[in-house]
Design a protein that fits this description.
binds magnesium ion; OB fold (Dihydrolipoamide Acetyltransferase, E2P); 8-stranded mixed beta sheet; alpha/beta; binds adenosine-5'-diphosphate; Rossmann fold
Length: 726
């Protein structure tokens, strides 16, 4: 093993590097550069290439170029009303032509008389040659720099680019040669340069042409480490899980499906079959169910839960919000009613203190499904008259197995919650929960691992999903129930709100209904309620001949229920709502969705809201009422108008928001991606995944590849501790 492994360099603090003292080291730490390895992986943002220098007179406009010259004048102008903002204008000449460079950086170091290199795009403005915020480098200060190419490292934590470069130079000199943990056959197959070359040339290339292969190799490394972690995790879970063999051929599921008022789509049938196959094995299932809004995930989830119930196990559904949990509860209750599986109701007060109401096991096999709702604020059960169930009783019935199916929020993973024999757990809206919550729910089963189905309405390409959700298998509902007509989406300027009133009147006259979503106010429930209440007043006044209802998260569950039922029964024409209706609401007769200040909503939220209409056989319209004021807002509105395809919207969302913010720290390893971009480098991601999984398949504990294993642990750190937990 020639050279120093990256995992070893990851164990060295930065202050072992010449020129880095305690204070400097602390600054580096503040931006996540904790080790020599971190330092070496801090790649330049760009390069000044002196071999590509242009005379100022001949400089091409609009292209990335490097120029040199002497600074003849510097003006620093404090900008009024903008805090600490300062405009710095520097005038550079090569003797014949003058270029004006402008920065908005009060700390920019540049002085008259310096000879400098500038890199950026030149333009002509009112006859003057200008550059906006070019990278700047004083020439001739670093004598160690023999190359024609000057790397510009991102300054970070108060460490300037120049100092960063010096430190990295010193670190690199000490660290090289650097060992390559990647098996040679992979290097060959993918035509990758070795790691020592890559690290040397990403920082200090002899020729600019060496940067691309160096960068490619380092991007691959990031993706490969991530995929290796995922492959190892999956292997671990396989080895360690003690799953349940569920009874997949039972009556309950068959009866449920037969009682549905429609035929399942091909995609639903496939997903149910995939899930049933998982449930039948002794391995615990970890499956992601993703699908377009309205593609019918609820039925698939119900079929999975009933598989547990028919074998004498319990099912659980965890939703991220109270409203969502209630909606699931109501949705399931209706589905079971249709299938004739609802138990008779009793009065809760009369049942107080009764344990093991139904004698446990033999009753759980059907013919009825006993279901409970548990959230922070409320409990309900479908065998208890609404509003009369007592929390301690319901908790007890769940613990003793009298309840077959539990729907709830985070309450399900609280300490006080215990199940009798949890068999299948469904986690809805995965992107709002972290891995931790998933694991905690799984641990509610004692001595074995229940099967997990994770549902998300933020569809992303299957392979990408496999990576972001790592250890999960993926089922995709990529087919809509027949007869759906795509929703027409229009951006309506606020001044034309009258068009919205007209449309609502027309549709209501034709027997249809409308949703109006109030502006999003921060993340604050209270303000959101106020804004919905105001909009309710406005719409009631404008549409005084129509029946206008109001729903928001602070209504009591019973009242919410009553409003929802009134709307469902077409006793209301218009429903003014907060985002409580975002997910799950299903009213096929509704054909208008008006979203006020739509530019403030996130893309997936807008898509979800739009998904509340277009669910029946009628033509539907979504009006995005907005005068967008930000580029992001504009882009989101444009994307919504352009497509109804959730897959491409999800990609667009990823592009607008960036991978880090979309998946955040929630997905192990994604924050390790510094150079890689999962969308741009998608093809390489696929390669990395294939290679990593093949490696683990051939060498499950990486016994023959210890350096690769060490590297995953050292560089992904706490994110992958679970991998090495015994
Ligand atoms: P989502 O995937 O958004 O959760 P739902 O499960 O709420 O979608 O289903 C959306 C609507 O489609 C519901 O009205 C549901 O009853 C209906 N639906 C589901 N599957 C089918 C199907 N195979 N054929 C017709 N309608 C269906
Ligand atoms: Mg749903």
């Amino acid at each position: 093993m020639a050279g120093r492994p990256l995992s070893y360099l990851a164990s060295l603090p930065t202050d072992v590097v010449r020129g880095i003292g305690a204070a400097y080291s602390k600054k580096l730490s503040s931006v996540g550069i904790d080790s020599v390895a971190d330092l070496l992986l801090h790649a330049p943002r760009r390069y000044l290439d002196r071999s590509q220098e242009f005379d100022l007179a001949a400089v091409p406009l609009g292209e990335e170029v490097t120029v040199t010259g002497i600074v003849t004048k510097v003006n620093r102008i404090r900008l009024r009303g903008k805090g600490n903002r300062m405009m710095v204008d520097g005038y550079i000449t090569d003797g014949t032509t003058v270029l004006q460079a402008r920065w908005f950086n009060p700390y920019l170091k540049i002085e008259e008389g310096w000879e400098v290199l500038l890199a950026g795009k030149a333009e002509r403005f009112q006859g003057k040659l200008m550059m906006k915020s070019p990278d700047v480098e004083r020439v001739g200060r670093e004598t160690w720099l023999t190359s024609q190419i000057v790397p510009i490292h991102p300054s970070a934590g108060g460490v300037k680019s120049v100092d960063m470069r010096k430190s990295i130079k010193n670190a690199l000199d000490r660290a090289r040669p650097i060992h390559d943990s990647l098996p040679e056959d992979i290097l060959d197959r993918l035509d990758l340069v070795d790691r020592d070359f890559a690290l040397a040339n990403i920082h200090f290339p002899e020729e600019i042409a060496d940067v691309t292969p160096a960068r490619k190799r380092l991007i691959f490394d990031e993706l490969f480490r991530l995929e290796l972690a995922l492959a190892l995790r999956k292997q671990r879970v396989m080895e360690e899980s003690k799953g349940v063999h569920h009874e997949t051929g039972g009556e309950l599921v068959k009866r449920f499906i037969a009682a549905l008022p429609y035929d399942l789509t091909g995609a639903q049938n496939t997903a149910i079959a995939e899930i049933q196959a998982d449930l039948a094995t002794g391995h615990a299932m970890h499956r992601l169910l993703q699908g377009e809004v309205g593609s019918g995930k609820t039925v698939v989830a119900a079929a999975s839960l009933l598989t547990a119930v028919q074998g004498g196990f319990q099912g659980a559904v965890m939703a991220p919000t109270e409203v969502l949990a209630e909606q699931h509860y109501l949705g399931f209750r209706d589905l079971f009613e249709t299938a004739g599986m609802s138990p008779p109701e009793q009065d809760g007060s009369a049942m107080e203190g009764q344990d093991s109401l139904f004698g446990g096991q033999e009753q759980s096999n059907g013919p009825v499904v006993r279901m409970a709702l548990v959230t922070g604020n409320s409990v309900e059960a479908n065998f208890v008259t609404a509003g009369t169930a007592k929390r301690p009783d319901v908790m007890e019935w769940i613990a003793d197995g009298s309840v077959d199916l539990v729907v709830g929020t985070h309450s399900l993973i609280q300490e006080s919650m215990s199940f009798s024999r949890l068999g299948v757990a469904v986690v809805d809206e995965q992107h709002r929960f972290g891995v931790y919550q998933r694991v905690t729910l799984r641990e509610k089963a004692d001595g074995y691992d229940p099967d997990m189905l994770i549902m998300t309405a933020t569809p992303i390409p299957r392979t990408l999903a496999m990576t972001l959700y790592g250890d999960l298998e993926v089922s995709t509902l990529d087919e809509m129930p027949p007869g759906r007509i795509p929703v027409q989406t229009v951006n309506l300027p606020k001044s034309r709100i009258g068009d919205a009133f007209d449309l609502i009147r027309r549709e209501v006259a034709a027997g249809r209904q409308a949703f109006v979503v109030a502006p999003l106010v921060d993340e604050s429930d209270k303000l959101e309620v106020t804004s919905a209440t105001e909009e309710h007043e406005r719409f009631s006044a404008e549409l005084s001949d129509l029946r206008v209802g109001l729903i928001h998260g602070q209504l009591r569950p019973g009242d919410k229920d009553a409003v929802m039922h009134a709307f469902r029964d077409n006793e209301l024409d218009v429903m003014v709502a907060t985002t409580v209706i975002e997910v799950g609401i299903d009213i096929p007769n509704a054909t208008v969705m008006v979203i006020l200040d739509a530019d403030r909503f996130g893309l997936s939220q807008l898509h979800q809201l739009r998904g509340r209409v277009g669910r029946g056989k009628y033509h539907s319209t979504c009006l995005l009422v907005a005068d967008p004021t930000t580029t992001d807002g504009e882009e989101r509105i444009a994307a919504m108008v352009a497509t109804t395809d959730g897959f491409s919207l999800a990609e667009e969302d990823l592009r607008i928001r960036g991978q880090g913010t979309v998946f955040g720290a929630r997905q192990a390893g994604v924050k390790d991606l510094k150079l890689a971009d999962i969308l741009r480098d998608y093809d390489m991601l696929i390669e990395a995944r294939r290679e990593a999984f093949a490696l683990v398949a051939a060498d499950p504990d990486l016994k023959d590849h210890p350096a690769a294993a060490e590297e995953v642990r050292a560089l992904l750190g706490a994110d992958v501790d679970w991998l090495f937990r015994s």
